[in-house]
Design goal:
single chain; alpha+beta; six-stranded antiparallel β-barrel; five-stranded mixed sheet; 9 helices; 17 strands; about 20% helix; about 30% strand; globular
């Protein structure tokens, strides 16, 4: 299984830099077994059945990108340098692991100031990352970070435009509540209140899990033999209530359909231990063709980068040749790609009852 097996040509103009508005007006490519249908996200109501369960990731993206300065007095006089920081994850000792640019301009013990309220001291360096200790904690830190920070847009968007105030709304799900992610579970960005009400009226149920998406989700695969790729780890939690909802859905013949690859990776990690049960911890599960799914009956997800682990994941669910055809259809029909782009509903087993609308 070679990396080139997951490559495809993507025209630059198909990379979305802003989401559809309203959210649920984005396009939806439904891959129903071997059949392909061009729909809109609001049509999700027609493709899901009463008794199906959507598994939603309730992580909340923090405004993890910070711009600050460090000041230094030397024999040559006072100097300042602009420093860019992207927070990655909190550590048990109270510090934050972060990407610091340029890291070489900050010395251990130096302080970087981001606003009148927020600053951080570099306490160490590990694996090319800076370890930062902030001057605030708890609610005070959250408030200062929200005021000073920008949303950590994916590199392919950040290269085209800077994050702005609108991204603080656009790059957050409507049900986000557990802060800790530095990337959004982007398939969930297509849901708005009107769609949630329509799904509820249809009899589609929802449950919530938490997986704090890390910056590692954007790391490229650098090995030709994809089976040797080492995945990043992310913290996740499946509550007893969420596990029971999944078990009950299966017991009555409904489908468990995660929204987003993050939710899928988490529930498949849970299911490695056997069945549906409460689970909490770090997962580095790597899903590629040949994987046996134990908790997933379908998936709603966006369109992913060439040669990415996420494209390997959807190929594992649907089959590599099937996904090649799906992505060729998406490109030829000008679907919008990546985090702010359009969505797909992937159903490995074609449903018996087709939408009539």
């Amino acid at each position: 299984m070679q990396l080139s097996d997951f490559d495809f040509h993507l025209p630059e103009d198909l990379i979305a830099t802003r989401p559809a508005s309203p959210r649920s007006s984005a396009r939806l490519l439904v891959a129903d077994g071997e059949a392909t249908h061009d729909q809109v996200v609001t049509d999700l109501v027609d493709w899901l059945q009463p008794g199906d369960l959507l598994v939603l990731n309730d992580t909340r993206v923090i405004p993890a990108r910070l711009f600050g300065t460090r000041a230094r007095t030397s024999a040559q006089g006072d100097t300042t340098a602009k420093i860019e920081v992207t927070l990655l994850e909190p550590r048990a000792d109270g510090t934050w692991a972060a990407l610091v640019k340029p890291l070489k301009k900050v010395k251990i013990g130096e302080t970087v100031r981001f606003s009148d309220d927020l600053s951080a001291t570099l306490t160490g360096v590990a694996d090319g990352q800076g370890l930062l200790r902030f001057n605030l904690s708890g609610d005070d830190f959250d408030a200062a970070l929200n005021a000073a920070g920008a949303m950590p847009l994916p590199p392919y968007i950040a290269a085209k435009r800077p994050a702005d105030a609108q991204d603080k709304t656009d790059y957050q799900t409507i049900w986000a509540r557990n802060a800790g992610a530095v990337a959004a579970p982007t398939a969930s960005l297509h849901f708005d209140d009107a769609l949630m009400q329509a799904l509820d009226a249809r009899g589609v149920q929802v449950t919530y899990v938490t997986l704090h998406v890390g910056a590692g989700t954007f790391l490229p695969v650098k090995v030709d033999d994809v089976t040797t790729h080492k995945m990043h780890s992310e913290w996740g939690q499946v509550s007893a209530g969420a596990a029971q909802a999944m078990a009950d859905t299966r017991a009555r013949g409904g489908r468990v359909i995660p929204v987003g690859t993050t939710a899928l990776r988490l529930i498949e990690t849970m299911a490695r231990d056997g069945g549906f049960h409460a689970w909490e911890g770090e997962t580095d599960i790597f899903i590629y063709p040949g994987f046996t799914f134990r908790a997933t009956d379908g998936l709603m997800t966006n369109f992913h980068l060439p040669k990415s682990t996420l494209l390997m994941l959807v190929s594992a669910l649907m089959g590599t040749e099937r996904m090649r055809a799906v992505y060729a259809h998406a490109v030829s029909n000008a679907y919008r790609f990546f985090s702010y782009g359009d969505a797909s509903l992937l159903l490995p087993q074609a449903q018996d009852a087709k939408p009539t609308s």
